[in-house]
Amino acid sequence: MGYRMNVLLVLALLACSLALVDSQHRARKLFMDLERAQTRSKELDIQWKQLQLDQLQLAKASMIDLKARRDLGMMTASADRTVYLTMPPLAARRQDASLAAAAGQAGVPLAGQGRVPLLAPEAAEIRP
After folding, report:
1. Is residue 93 classed exposed, middle or buried when 0-12, 13-18 and 19+ CB atoms within 10 A define those classes?
2. Are strands 115-119 and 82-86 parallel, antiparallel or unpaired?
């Protein structure tokens, strides 16, 4: 009976030692995963702050103006490039009504006496 008890205790000791080794291995593995996740989180935080700085820089009016002129070829509207088209009274009233309806204000003239400013290109063809 004593021999069986010793064998049983040795088997229990082996099972407990294997469970301890497995538990330590899992703990090390989880700790390494945690360290990797924290490092990635710090990298993403730095990247987020850099993107916020870039957004602030690009949102400045001077930067928007520079990009519009350089990349899109846009230029400031000037009096010599602005053409006013005069509409017949009926067409002006229709436009005023449609603009007011779009703005949610019926009966409020928005275009003003049928004159609508348009920016004309150099070789614009204006049809009646």
Report:
1. middle
2. antiparallel
Q: Indicate the pTM of the whole model.
A: 0.46
**Do 123 and 87 touch, CB atoms closer than 8 A?**
no
pLDDT tens per residue across span 85-99? 777 777 667 777 788
- Start-to-end C-alpha separation, the chain: 116
pLDDT tens-digit series, residues 53-68: 999 998 898 888 988 8
Dist CA 106 CA 98 (whole Å): 9
Please say if the pLDDT value at position 108 is more than 50: no
- Indicate the average pLDDT of the chain: 82
Neighbours of 52 (CB within 10 A): 10
DSSP letters spanning the chain = -HHHHHHHHHHHHHHHHHHHHHHHHHHHHHHHHHHHHHHHHHHHHHHHHHHHHHHHHHTSHHHHHHHHHHTT------GGGEEEEEPPHHHHHHHHHHHHHHHT-TT--SS-TTEEEEE--TT-----
